[in-house]
């Protein structure tokens, strides 16, 4: 059989009516134990599986949560995993829709709406706040990793995280701390503000250069730094991927980390803890953030939070010290 088996196929194999097969597949009353066993055996032999889409079309609710994320962002992948776990525990399924260089956010969102998702969780959206507000006026929406005043948001305290990172480097005796900025990325303005606050409180000059979100951008920033020959005591990168690009270029150039330059990232991505990398970083609790986002969305969907004002749920990130930062040598 080259096509997907149907209820009619199962009925023919089991020698019963289509209606009786439907009763068994829905676990509804009206069939004997012997008949149920026979129908389920026939279904297994044919490889029949109920179509959840057809079932949802018959229901008033789909119990689907739509989730957008950016391809290539390791921290987004951690959040996706957390959303799956939290949604399943509350009886919801998750539909993913990726944002890529060739697939923008609005297309990703439209796909989820067309799939009858009841609510949306958007990880690090870059669309303007007004458009997010318009979207949230039509259905429950929770934004992650970005603050949006008119929409429910769940995020880390990026300012506090950046302050903790700078204070760690200051405690190691570093005084010239280069910060590689994240540009227009969600959370970038807050992390830059935290860096500026901490260096200002310490009476130190700001040293800020363009960084980015990827290893390639981090590598370009490190190459530019090496070209000037004016090396800082430490580099604090916008995220772990940017930091890894910096680390690669420095090591290839014979600059040792952390002996000559301490290096700090942000996110605590899976690569950061590898034995040959050991990147010190600011850890965001992906599981806790995901659970808070799902809980908030489900409260809207189930009516508990209907009509209430948008909330801004903030979690404090923590410093993870590994081998890429060390005390400054005199």
Automatic annotation (TrEMBL):
<keyword id="KW-0238">DNA-binding</keyword>
<dbReference type="InterPro" id="IPR028082">
    <property type="entry name" value="Peripla_BP_I"/>
</dbReference>
<keyword id="KW-0805">Transcription regulation</keyword>
<feature type="domain" description="HTH lacI-type">
    <location>
        <begin position="5"/>
        <end position="59"/>
    </location>
</feature>
<dbReference type="InterPro" id="IPR046335">
    <property type="entry name" value="LacI/GalR-like_sensor"/>
</dbReference>
<dbReference type="GO" id="GO:0003700">
    <property type="term" value="F:DNA-binding transcription factor activity"/>
</dbReference>
<protein>
    <submittedName>
        <fullName>LacI family DNA-binding transcriptional regulator</fullName>
    </submittedName>
</protein>
<dbReference type="Pfam" id="PF13377">
    <property type="entry name" value="Peripla_BP_3"/>
</dbReference>
<dbReference type="InterPro" id="IPR000843">
    <property type="entry name" value="HTH_LacI"/>
</dbReference>
<keyword id="KW-0804">Transcription</keyword>
<dbReference type="InterPro" id="IPR010982">
    <property type="entry name" value="Lambda_DNA-bd_dom_sf"/>
</dbReference>
<dbReference type="Pfam" id="PF00356">
    <property type="entry name" value="LacI"/>
</dbReference>
<dbReference type="GO" id="GO:0000976">
    <property type="term" value="F:transcription cis-regulatory region binding"/>
</dbReference>
